[in-house]
Amino acid sequence: MSKSTRASRREFAVACLSAGIVCMLPARQAVAQQYPTRPVRIIIPFAAGGPADVYGRAIAQRLQEAMGGNFVVENRPGAGSVIGTEAAATSAPDGYTLLLMSNAHTVNESLIPNKPYALMRDFVPVAPLNYSDLVLVVRSGLPVEDLPDLLKQAKERPDGMTYASSGPGTPYHMAGELFKAMAGVSIIHVPYKGSTNARTDVLGGQVDMMFDAIPTMAPHIASARVKAIGTTGQDRSAVLPKVPTISESGVPGYEATIWLGVMAPKGVPAEILDRLNAAIGKIVADPQIRQAWAGQGATGMSMSPAQFATYLEADIEKWAKIVRISGAKAGQ
Q: Which of 34, 154, 284, 294 is the most exposed place for a label (fewest CB within 10 A)?
């Protein structure tokens, strides 16, 4: 066989391979454009009624309107979000199972190191949704009026004051651990299976205090069933403008939020991820959505999948430091 013949055959093979790749691209794009052709499951690894559930259902409805097909919410709470998250991690990477996640997931990377999955190994970022400040409230019968009162009493009570949360590793729990570390107080964590039960016991006076979502707790503050001590953002909340921030009231630099986002099992085609990211971005940017969320104390977030990945990595690192400093343990 002559050199020219061998060269021709190599050129022919390369041409065929290139043509195959070129042909595959329109096919993959066509699949992405047709997506979804069957129901898409959004797993929410938290109990019904909390912020993740409320916003997750709202996004599911909007995605259904924007993309067609059915987006079905499935609540699978338990083990600090691990049960539902594992179910999502082991699902087929075809875009038909999504995970509604929060900063509980970035906390769990260090709080629960022996999970059956790793967030950045087994998932790919899709898009963030929003973030909200929290509010620290105390039971109505507790004899404190502001943050200095609370800090004084917490330091003087030998038995320790108690704070409720929706479970280990959740934003409510870690807001309390950050508060303990920065304020230099010893308060006892009382974990619950979901925010509803935690909130009920604070309202009933069984637990001294709780960090909770502002929209959820605002009506109880208005009816004096609990006392608002401080909000957790950098600036005062538009929903509770008369309530000072914790940072301005005695713990300078304190800040804790709850944020939500969407991830998918690793391996989902990039074209589908991009379509979902674009659809969620349009929903978050909708003026009606932004206005409604602002009234609830939530601010929309918009990032590309790559930007969201960077954000997640930074949050994992941030909370790893807090877990280490506070000595927080899963189940405590």
A: 34
